[in-house]
Amino acid sequence: MKKQLTAFIAAIFITMCIAAGIFAVSGVAYANTSGTQASNTPNQNASTNVNASNVVSQVQVQQQQQIQQLQSLVAQYQQRDQQYQQREQQYQTEVTQANTQLAAAQQQLQQYQSLVNYLQQRGIITVTNDGQVYVNR
Q1: How far apart are CA 73 and CA 76, in angstroms?
Q2: How far apart are the C-alpha atoms of 5 and 134, rounded to whole Å?
Q3: Which of 7, 41, 113, 132 has its CA 20 to 30 A from that of 94?
Q4: CA–CA separation, 12 vs 120, rounded Å?
Q5: Cβ burial, residue 45 (10 Å; 0-12/13-18/19+)
Q6: How far apart are CA 19 and CA 24, in angstroms?
Q7: pLDDT in tens, 3-50
Q8: How far apart are CA 92 and CA 104, in angstroms?
Q9: Angle at Cα 78 formed by Cα 77 and Cα 80, nearest 5°?
Q10: With contact defined as beta carbons under 8 Å apart, do 116 and 125 qualify?
Q11: Cut 0.70: pTM above it
């Protein structure tokens, strides 16, 4: 019972503080004679509408500029992508050519090795351990 009474007194005190604040603010507002008056003249509304439409049009122009910038960036990236794809195709072609040359060189090397082995077996040449070749007469 004591807790309920304390809570009730606290609620009444808080309500009275808020009500006093509301009365104080409304009393000051009522007593203020130098305040501005509301005006509904057409000129003021027209200038407000013009200002609002100017702001809207400026925002639209900015958005259009941003869209154009982004589209320009996309076009640049697409060009770069095409360049990279062309380079990749060029490099693939060069790798294929290099592999073909390598295969031909390996085939020639095998032919040279076979020839050297044949000449050694027949006793026409002698190859030393340090790589020197002597022709036997």
Answers
A1: 5
A2: 124
A3: 113
A4: 120
A5: exposed
A6: 9
A7: 888 888 988 989 999 998 898 888 888 787 776 665 555 555 555 666
A8: 18
A9: 65
A10: yes
A11: no
Interior/surface letters 1-38, b for 16+ CB within 10 angstroms, e for the rest: eeeeeeeeeeeeeeeeeeeeeeeeeeeeeeeeeeeeee
Q: What single-letter amino acid sits at 13?
A: F
Distance CA(90)–CA(16), nearest Å, equals 86
Q: How far is CA 124 from CA 16, 108, 131, 133, 136, in A?
A: 125, 21, 16, 10, 5
Q: Which amino acid would we find at residue 90?
A: Q
Q: Which residues pair with 133 in a beta bridge?
A: 127
Give the integer Cα–Cα distance in Å for 92 and 98.
Answer: 10
